[in-house]
Amino acid sequence: MTLLNVKNLTKTYRSGLITHKMILAVDNVSLDVKEGEIISLVGESGSGKTTTARIILRLLKPTSGSIVFMGKDIWHDLKSKNDLKWYWRNVNGVFQDPFSSFNPTHRIRDDLLRVFNLFEHNYDNETKMNLVREALQSVGLIPEEVLERRPFELSGGMRQRILIARIFLIKPKLVIADEPTSMIDATLRLSILNLFTRLREELKISIMFITHDLGLATYVSDRILVMYKGKIIEEGTPEEILNNPKHEYTQNLLNSVPKLYTSWFKQL
Known about the structure:
The chain is an alpha/beta fold and 268 residues long. Helix content is 38%, strand content 25%.
């Protein structure tokens, strides 16, 4: 069943104080995400993938096009504060810089407890803390080691795990993960991706993974969509993209992946 449908999405910007040249950041993009599916939007910097993600998250308004989530057009049907609360309860983002997602003056305990403001049900304090501890344990963290610390006292990998623990608490329908591994140590990237696959397997959460790394997209995705100059130029399963890339740009992306990795991915 289709969870999210994006149709003819376009975003333009004006550039320059004198010329007012129009820049087409997203050009007539259409895509869908099914329930329990992981798709990757792959492209270099400036390809339009992050702009697309920000529009889906309602952080940026499109120039034209429609986005329908669970039968509701997110730019026309969601008008009240409760409507928006419902949307952000069900569509969550995990971003490239995990530090920017935290209040630097608050302890991790306070940040995670604020999640419960999204819930209609009022949990007692003991239940809230038990759920927070369970979520931290789910992502491989020891609650007592992080709850009283502030974001700047933690590594990038730990901050990203805490953001994913927040997802385990909220249990949204869809997660938009925008370059979630690009600012953490390379040795930790697959462990973070494995947490996203657990979100899908254990909670049936759909995930849109935004990345410039075709190798990582191949590892985690059911489908891959390649973006170039604001357009989706190719779509396929990881096997189709790896074994028979159609577009020259996709071929170039594939050539940038170390041969050792491509051989490994083909065996997965």
